[in-house]
Amino acid sequence: MNYLAHAYLSFHQPDILIGNMISDFVKGKQQFDYTPGIQQGIRLHRAIDAFTDSHSATLKAKQYLKPAAGRYAGAFMDIVYDHFLALDPGEMQEKDWSMFAGEVYDQLFLSRPVLPESFASMLPFMSRQNWLYNYRFDWGISRSFKGLASRARYLTAESDDVFALFETHYHSLGEAYQQFFPDVKNFAKETLVALMKQ
């Protein structure tokens, strides 16, 4: 789950942010329990995921991680993309990413009453450990990989093995991000505009 990208591609709109962040914790018709704005965020999240999974840069980059990540290569790629986004000065400078992360946590805590319990229980750890900002560091990626591996029921390798491939193919993975992110950003903008017209 690429939390940083989904937060960033909410374009500073609170309801869109909430929906975008909780989407993986909302199943089926549960989305209709939320306000129209949050529903739009949920649908935006799902559209971004589908776009990401089918993008040529993602399909190519996943091959670098597959020897260790197997069927979870796409999930690990989400984290990899967040790493390169956090380091992208074309989007924001380091101090701005730090401020942005704080604003996201504040908005999520303000919206605590409507968050799915599973997400709400995770939020204090996300904030305290500053997941969004710490994607920029290799140790932050390593920790995120370990968290993903602990939830990946059918992962046969260790997260350290995936991280070793991340380090080995770092340059190529960074190139994949450069090819991918402008496209997903434009897609998210266009999709959000279309959703808000519905």
TrEMBL record:
Keywords: Hydrolase, Lipid biosynthesis, Lipid metabolism. PANTHER family: ACYL CARRIER PROTEIN PHOSPHODIESTERASE. InterPro entries: ACP_PD. Coiled coil: none annotated. One of its GO terms (biological process) is fatty acid biosynthetic process. The keyword Lipid biosynthesis applies. GO terms for molecular function: [acyl-carrier-protein] phosphodiesterase activity. It comes from the Bacteria. This is Acyl carrier protein phosphodiesterase. The keyword Heme does not apply. The lineage of its organism: Bacteria, Pseudomonadati, Bacteroidota, Chitinophagia, Chitinophagales.
